[in-house]
Amino acid sequence: MKIYSRLIATGLLLLSGFSFAHSNHKTDLIDQPQQGFGELVIFGGVFTDTGNFASLYGDLPGIFWNNRFANGPVISDYMAETLGLSASPSLHVAGEVSEPMGTNYSMRNAWAGQSGELNISGQVQTYLASKDYSVPADSLIFMWAGSHDVVEAITTPAPLPYQMLDDAVFGIEAQLYLLIDSGAQHIFAPTFADIGFLPAMQRRGIEARVTEATDYFNRKFSRMLNRVERNTGQRIYRFDFDRYVKGLVANAGFYGIKNSVDVCVEQLATGGCDFNSFLFMTDVLITSKTHKLIADAFTQDLLHQVSYCKRGNYHRRTKHHLCPSN
Asked: Which residues are in coiled coils (predicted)?
């Protein structure tokens, strides 16, 4: 009976939405209801683009949903829905708007280590200019940059161009300083994932090179986030995307993904493509089902970090409070 009692207690704790580490604390979400985030501002690439690429180069083929690079909503859409916010594209590159229409500046093929309107630096500059360089304290900044740089480094002929990866990390760091200096208090910055499992990488036989580039970038990226926190006193919400993806692929069946190897669109003609049970839409793109799984993981982990921050968090190196002051 003791075992069953423990199982019931464990289930109740899990249903509460909080980890065991937090089970002894009353949550601020109950005692002192929070207003939540005021806007979701996204800087990134292909997995979060909700129409900026298409606004510049034309509508995507019909197989792609609403100019997303997936068969349905993408990570930014799902995160915005959960948070009660919007992930509408900024359309800042369309040439038809005088100011951003939405707060999602993501653009496929956006470089982190190069300047330009289409790249991460241009995305950040456009957003800051629209806010007169004063970021609202309740804005959630979703900075998911560097993926294009890593992919380009991987596919560039040997030897691996480490400088390209260094430039990407430096570029992200520069934008984080700009955002924090302009008042950003909530920044979510996941790492990159080892994409050696992608069909495109498997077919090229470059898994080892992918791992080398990913590990190098993530080490530099994590150290950079530590440095930004030390220099600014501003906490940055993090997510180990590489670790999460490894777990997702290893346990795909438990998430309702029956095929984590093949490309769904390659089986459309034979009727074997069910987007809701495939991990991959194309050899480099994931299905909307996979996007939702990632978005749910992002949002849940982010909110846990925010909740933990409400109870106080101190950086072990700086020895001072790193949580937002509002």
From this structure: none
